[in-house]
Design goal:
By secondary structure, the protein is an alpha+beta fold. It has one domain: Nucleic acid-binding proteins (OB fold (Dihydrolipoamide Acetyltransferase, E2P), Beta Barrel), CATH 2.40.50. Helix content is about 20%, strand content about 50%. The chain has 2 helices and 6 strands. It is globular.
Length: about 130
C-alpha cells in the first residue's frame, strides 16, 4: 500500500516570536507563525497582494534551535508535514486546527546583531537535519 505524501515546503516571514514550552514528559515544543505572500496585476492594471498564514510546530532539538535563533520578521524556509487536530472547547463546540510540523528549518536572512550566530545555527541544523 502506498500512502499519499503530505510534505510542505514554505518560505515566509515569521509573524511572531517563537514560543517554547515543554510537554509533561519534558520534550520541548516551539510554535510560531509564518506569512507567505504573492502579488499579481489584474487585467485592469490594479496590483493585488494576498497573504496566507501558517502555524508551525517544531519538536525536540529543532524546537530549541527555533526558539533560540528565530524572531519576528525573519525570513525562513520550513519543510514539514501537515497535521490536523480536532478537539472540543469548554462549551462543547468541535474545533479543528491544521498546522505544519517542521522537520527542517533554514534561516534565509542574516541576523543583524551577529553573523557568528548564523554559522553556528546552520551547522547545528545540518548536523541534526542533513540537507
Amino acid at each position: 500500500m502506498t500512502r499519499g505524501l503530505n510534505k510542505v515546503l514554505l518560505i515566509g516571514r515569521i509573524g511572531r516570536d517563537p514560543e517554547m514550552r515543554y510537554t509533561p514528559s519534558g520534550k520541548p515544543v516551539t510554535t510560531f507563525s509564518i506569512a507567505t505572500s504573492r502579488s499579481w496585476n489584474a487585467s485592469n492594471g490594479d496590483k493585488h497582494t494576498e497573504t496566507d498564514w501558517f502555524n508551525i510546530v517544531a519538536w525536540g532539538n529543532l524546537a530549541e534551535i527555533c526558539k533560540q535563533h528565530l524572531s519576528k520578521n525573519r525570513l525562513v524556509y520550513i519543510e514539514g508535514r501537515l497535521q490536523t487536530r480536532q478537539w472540543e472547547d469548554a462549551d462543547g463546540n468541535k474545533k479543528t486546527s491544521t498546522e505544519i510540523v517542521a522537520n527542517e528549518m533554514i534561516m534565509l536572512d542574516e541576523k543583524k546583531d551577529s553573523s557568528n550566530d548564523q554559522a553556528e545555527v546552520k551547522e547545528g541544523i545540518e548536523d541534526e537535519y542533513p540537507l
